[in-house]
Amino acid sequence: MDTVIRITNAPEAYDYAYTKTLEVLPYQTRSGNRYRRIQIVGTSDDDYYLDHQVGRYHSGMYQTVTEERFAELLKELEGTWILPVEDDPADTCYHCSQPIASAPVYDGGEPGNPAYHPTCYATVRRTGAER
């Protein structure tokens, strides 16, 4: 079995069984997707597993590049399209990329109700302390 290492900004939900996260990198897209170093296990006979996994990522409009290409992109795009992670990404709205702490979250006041970000009304995932 051969392995291939790539960098992607796809969430782990897009990973197949033969793909695993080696490291979550300290970078994210403007929309808050974290970059990950992944390992794709395949066979030396063909690139089926690599092509299949990359196709899965691309179906969701996510990037997958070699480590060398990511280093080049980082030099070109850091601070504009590739951002260093400074805050907990759980504190950023996945829809509009605005900090959740920048405005109150409305949940209707009842347990079990979903919370909404008031800027875009996207459902907010809560972690840690209630907001």
Give a written overview of the molecule:
It is a single chain. With 131 residues, this protein is of the alpha+beta class. It folds into 2 domains: 2-84; 87-126, no CATH class. The chain has 2 helices and 7 strands, in the order βββαβαβββ. It has helices at residues 48-59, 67-77, and strands spanning 2-8, 19-29, 34-42, 64-65, 82-84, 115-116, 123-124. The strands form 2 sheets. The protein has a 5-stranded antiparallel sheet, with helices on both faces. Strand 6 (115-116) and strand 7 (123-124) form a beta hairpin. It starts with a strand and ends in a 7-residue tail after the last strand. The model is unreliable at 125-131 (pLDDT under 50).
Topology:
Blueprint lengths: L1 E7 L10 E11 L4 E9 L5 H12 L4 E2 L1 H11 L4 E3 L30 E2 L6 E2 L7
Write out key terms for the chains shown.
globular, 5-stranded antiparallel beta sheet, 131 residues, two-stranded antiparallel ribbon, alpha+beta
Mean pLDDT: 75
Strand content: 25-35%
Please give the count of helices. 2
- Give the termini separation: 47 Å
Going by helix content, strand content and strand pairing, the class is: alpha+beta
Q: Largest sheet, if any?
A: 5 strands, antiparallel
Helix content: 10-25%
- The gross shape turns out to be globular
Q: Which blocks of ≥5 consecutive residues have pLDDT under 50? A: 125-131
Number of strands: 7
How many domains is the backbone divided into? 2
The radius of gyration over CA amounts to: 17 Å
Strand order of the largest sheet: 4-1-3-2-5
Q: Note the run of SSEs as H and E.
A: EEEHEHEEE
